[in-house]
Amino acid sequence: MLDAPASGVAWALGLVGDVRDVLASLGLVADGGTGSVEVCELSAMGRPLFERRDVPLDVLAGQASGLRLLPDQHLTVALRFPGEWMEAGVRRRAEKLFVLRVHVWGRGAVLLVLAAHADAWMTLDLRERPQPEVAAENAPRLAAALKQISELTGSETDPGDPTWHARPTADGFADLLVEGAEYDDSWDNFEVPARWRRLVKLLPGGYGEEEDYECTTEEPVRYAEVRCGERLLGFLWASADGAAGYEPRGAAGDAAFGAGVPWLLRFRAARSAGAGASEALEGCLGRIEAGVTVGAVVRRAPSLDALQELSGRG
Hints:
Layout: E1 2-3, H1 8-25, E2 34-41, E3 50-56, H2 57-64, E4 73-87, E5 90-105, E6 109-116, H3 132-153, E7 168-169, E8 172-173, H4 176-179, H5 186-201, E9 221-228, E10 231-239, E11 244-248, H6 255-272, H7 277-284, E12 288-289, E13 292-294, E14 299-301, H8 304-312
Antiparallel strand pairs: 1-6, 2-3, 2-4, 4-5, 5-6, 7-8, 9-10, 9-13, 9-14, 10-11, 12-13
Helix pairs in contact: 1-3, 6-7
């Protein structure tokens, strides 16, 4: 916890800017990103007095810098940063590599929270496979960032509670090769279902058994890339046993989820018209919907599990 001056909003924006500079100096975050600001009365936290969501960072500062926080109010600033990590000397980029949140109470208390959205800092990946070389390339930079942020704020780092995927420590994450993982295959058990629930919420009426293709299969899958310009957002797929769906590419961030909606709706229409899953996939190839294109080239993956893993990598 920190203490904020009376001009809490401007101070908080300055703090998150300083933290971003620390991360950028170590090559952890890149240009771009979006932010959100919310001010609420403490007695009515669910009804914001001021709110801006998913605004470019340079615009956000201008919109919120004139606000002043009163004693009985609470401010939340949340920033999503794109960034890069290394794998065998190759740079990989994610559109949401870190999320930084600052909570400011009008009477002075401040809580700064940094969340990492990649397993590059861990000695086991999310499928519990050893990756000490990946951790060795990336974990030292994260440790250096946490040390510098602690010095910047004059506060000790509280690692927080273990998550589905990892055990945070004051300088990064615990060595799971020594301590062991909390769960077996947290990617398949937690991350894949969570991604699917998020995608389903975007579909009108959710995902119904009668009007949609089966969304799982044990068979090999055929798939096509879904892109916006040169940016790869996900994979549209179908299998020989009548299943079909869409896998968002994790590194593409929020845009990956919305990009799948029009194609899943096309699948729904094809199913209602009596088309098989493979025929529905063929009908989407080369098409453009809301600026998003399905590639004309069909690739093959040995299983849906393999495609889901591909979608989760940078």
